[in-house]
Structures are given as C-alpha cells and as structure tokens.
Amino acid sequence: MCSSDSMFLTVITQYSNKFARLFGKSSGATGKLKVIFHDFPGGAEGFELMLKFCYNNGTADINPSNLFLARCAAEYMEMKEPMADVSNLLEQTEKSLQEISYWTWSDILIGLKQCQSLLVPDSSVMVERCLDTIVGRLVLASEASPCPSTSSTDSSWVRYSCDSKSTESVKTSFSRLTWWFEDLLFLSPLLVAMLVKSMLSRKMDHLVISKFLLYYQKAKFSTATTHEKCKIIEMVIDMHYDMDLSCVPCKTLFGILRVTLGLNISKCSRNKLETMIGSQLDQATLDNLLVPSPHGISYLYDVNLILRFLKAFLRRGNSLVTPIQMRKVASLIDLYIAEIAPDPCLKTSKFLALATAIPDSARDSYDELYHAMDMYLEVHTQLSQEERLKICCGLNFEKLSPQACLHLSQNKKFPSKSTVQALISQQSKLKNLLHVIPSTSSYNDSPCSSSGAAAQKGKKDKTSEQVVLYSGNFDLSTDNEKLKAHLQGMQWRVMELEKFCRKMQIQMAKITKSKASGHSYAKSLPKLCS
C-alpha cells in the first residue's frame, strides 16, 4: 500500500465506521486498494461532500441546498461516532435540520427537491420534517390570508395582505389559499400522499386539499405515461377516501370517475371511488349516471356500475339514509331506467335488477317506472311471455295512478295477467273510496259538515281519516249537486271496470282450457308475479 492510500485510510476511517470495518485490517497490505459503492447517495457529488468534511478536519459548509445530501452520505457511511474536538457529520446535519423552521419557503422547496432526487425512503425523518414544515407554513398562511409567494430566495415565505376592503371578491380570497399549488407540482405521487396525510392530520381545509389534488392530477397528466397516470389517479382517489366526504362535491367524484374510464387502475382504488360516489348518490344528476359501458360490453351505458353505486348507497342503512334521500335516489334511478330502456342490447335481467333495486317504500308512485317498462317492451318485441311477466313483477299496481292503470289496461305490450292485476287493484281502490263516501251523508246536508265532523271526537277511527283524505279530491266546499254527479261518474266507471275484468277472466279461462300447455302456464302466473 502506498503512502497516499495509507493517509487516505487514516483520514477516512476516523470519521466513517463503514470504512473502518472495510479497511481496518488492511493497513499493512500491499498493492492498490479499490472499493466501489454502486448505491452511494447522490453519487459522486455526495461522495465528494463527505470527503471534504473528512479532509477539512470535520467541518463543512452545510446549507439547505446540500443538507439532505450530507445527511444521506453520513447515514450511508455511518459517520456517527463522537469526535474529540468536532461533532460528527450526522450530528451537524441533525443540528441544521432542527433549524428548518427558520428557512425561507424557497429553501424548503430546494431541500425537498434534493430529498426527492435522492430517492429517500418514505420513512425518512428528513422527508417527514420537510413536509411537516411545509404544512405548518400553509396552515399559518391560510390563517393569515397570505398573498402568493414569490420565488425569490431572499423574500419572506409569507406576506400579509394590506387590502382590508370588504368588497374583495371570493375568487381572490380563494386564490390566496391556493397560491402554493404550482410550487409543489414537482412532488412525486408518493410524496404528495405523505403531504396530504400531514395536511389532514393538521385539520387543513379538505376542500382546498381536494382542489390541490385535482390541480396536481391535471398538470401531471399532460406529460405522464399510462402507468404514471394510473399511479397518480390512484393516489388522488386514496387521499379523497380519507377526507370528510361532506367537503367533497359529488361532481368532483364523478369527474375523477371519468378520468379513470380509460385507465386500468387497481380494483381497490376503483372500489373506494365507487363507494364514495354511492354514499352521495342522492346528490347526483342523470348526466352523471350516463357513463359509457367499458370496452367489450354491448350495453350503451354501464348499468353494472350504477348497480354498484346503488349497493353502496343502500349499504349505509336506514340509520344514515333519510327518507328524503331515498326518494331522491328512487326518482333518479327511474329517470335512468327511462333513459336506458330504448337500448336494444339491454338484457331483461339488468333492466329488472335496476327496477327492483330500490325498496318499495322509496317510491310514492310507479308511473315513471311503468312508462319505462312500456318503452322497454316496445323496443324488445322478441321477449317471451314469461320474460314480460318477470319485468311486470317490478311494478306495484297499488301505487299506479288511475291514468297509468287505464293505459296499462289497453296496452297490448303487457301480459294479460298484468292487465287484470292493474284493473283489480284500481277496482279495489274505487270500491274502498265509495264505501267511505256514504259514511259522510249525514254531513253532506250542510256546508258546515266538515266542522261538524271535527266536533264528534268519538268517530275518529280509520274510516273518518279516509273521509278527510278524499274530501280534498271532490270539492265538498259548497255544492252537493257537484258531489252527486261526481259520485255517479265514479260508480259508472267502477261498473265498466268490473265488466272488463269479467271479460278478461273469461278470456283467461278459455285460454287455459284451449291450450294443452295452458294448465302449467296458468299455475306459473301467480309465482312469477308474487
């Protein structure tokens, strides 16, 4: 070993435990020594910084531009042994790192960029401290209403607004909360995720965080590869999943969904997104639901996706879903069913799954669903009688309006069994109505009948409640002649419906007798519509 090598080892080994272990027993060896570090942090630049520290007797110019590089080199070379006169490199970097709270905004960004370029593991203390410092600055800045920062290194990290005018626009105010978006676009998705988690722990505004994530995604997508796009959007979804969804508009989630349509993101992230959308389905619009089917599916729209949304919405349970929300979703789904009904490729099973996914109590009326079924049967003329009956099982005939029942009774696209059921249901409602009306005859002789009924407290039974319910429909205000004429018309209609029902029953009986297979078919009808 030459004298220069010997001196090099003497200098290096007193500061580095790694060198001491490698060459501690080589002081008397002959020949040249050679060591190669393939994974030295920062490469030649980091190694040079470490050598300067050793040859300068344990002193180095450590500043924000090289602090993280020096820290990584010190950890890699195990430069942590106490020295007699000076601190070791690890101690000096730790002392500088503790002063990070006094750095300017630009110095923090420079240090973070260097940290990212060194591929420091996400558990690194340096990364966490740097990101925590950034979040702390942003929290203070949002409380102090800062003006946008500048990129000058000698400027303060925050400037306070001198504008105290009460007429300041909301747009300007919001821009003062988002001035840092552009500054942090250099971060990788991994560091953005760490940053957002720190923001959430510090109770930063979730709406601002969401805006930043969308801004980041849009900016990065312009130059990203398909694989990089998947990683970015998965990070955006995962971070939104940890937020308070009441602060994230439903429109934002559907915007993220449309971005993912052409990407093969992970199943876990996709499930999270669908769960978030499903929990806010009552805020969605019909346009939101009209998502094209994935490649290879013949349907015009992605029906399976909407079924998964519904499943996520209903999974919340009655304790979290109000009746108003349930009715909103039912109305929305009825509109969606009407929109997809003309699709000639839509299978009966999918149509029926959508029609029956909503609980019966969520619909006050089945008229919209009936019209959608009518449209579906008009397009799908090839359906068998059994398939048509299955579709009609999604109807609650008791909740059809008289107009819809009348239309159904004359609709040849619907099975005869469904027509009879609709007429029987309407007939039953009319009979119940007429049975209630005569009980009011003692009150019809006087315009004050309503007040007289209210005075008789002993007659507050179910029948009297029905009287009050239907009285609003027949205008009992002044003229009894109008009421009589109206009742006569109702009675005539009941008789006509009874005649029609008898005819339908006779026709059904004839069909049963005339067809050899009619016996088994007649038995199957109650089962299909039970």
TrEMBL record:
Domain NPH3, first and last residues per copy: 178-429
Pathway where this protein functions: Protein modification; protein ubiquitination
SUPFAM superfamilies membership: POZ domain
Transmembrane portions of the chain: none
Keyword line: Ubl conjugation pathway
Biological process terms in GO annotation: protein ubiquitination
InterPro entries according to UniProt: NPH3/RPT2-like, NPH3_dom, SKP1/BTB/POZ_sf
Family statement: Belongs to the NPH3 family.
Protein name: NPH3 domain-containing protein
Gene source species: Glycine max (Soybean)
Name of the gene: LOC100784792
